[in-house]
Amino acid sequence: MKLFSGFKKNNSSNKAKDNQKFPWIDLTSLDQLSEIQEQSKLTSVVIFKHSTRCVISRMVLREFESSFAKDGKSAVLYFLDLLSHRDISSQVGTIFQVFHQSPQLIVIKNGEAIYHASHNEIKADAIKDVI
């Protein structure tokens, strides 16, 4: 029986981790892009474009999440799964005039991209001044 009790402990620690998830809003609809433009007139918006099959993208995402303040006050955070939503990724590039890269972080203010970075240039500290 003790063999199985370890699994329960592991499950409860996984639940604790789930409660501390990063406050991403999933970007899953083209309609959200116009909402993002409007929202960015009131507060900074960050879009993180992530390739779920890319190890580099996963490492950059993990690093960003561990170093960005999750206070919910500094910016609204959107997460775009590139593989599931290629059409949205293309529109992000067109609307905000940013060349596509993956992973990529874009900061939007007043309906325009004011900052973008990709790969290892994505750093939470680097966007503090622009948001």
Structural overview:
The chain is an alpha/beta fold and 131 residues long. The protein has a single domain (22-127), classed as 3-Layer(aba) Sandwich (Glutaredoxin), CATH 3.40.30.10. Helices cover 42% and strands 21% of the residues. The chain has helices spanning 2-19, 31-39, 55-67, 86-96, 124-127, and strands spanning 25-26, 45-50, 76-81, 104-109, 112-118. It has a five-stranded mixed β-sheet with strand order 1-3-2-4-5, sandwiched between helices. The N and C termini lie far apart (53 Å).
The largest sheet is: 5 strands, mixed
N-to-C span: 53 Å
Number of helices: 5
CATH class assignment:
Alpha Beta
Secondary-structure topology with pairs:
Elements: H1 2-19, E1 25-26, H2 31-39, E2 45-50, H3 55-67, E3 76-81, H4 86-96, E4 104-109, E5 112-118, H5 124-127
Parallel strand pairs: 1-3, 2-3
Antiparallel strand pairs: 2-4, 4-5
Notable traits:
131 residues, five-stranded mixed β-sheet, globular, disordered N terminus, Glutaredoxin, alpha/beta, 5 helices
Concise summary:
By secondary structure, the chain is an alpha/beta fold. It has helices spanning 2-19, 31-39, 55-67, 86-96, 124-127, and strands spanning 25-26, 45-50, 76-81, 104-109, 112-118.
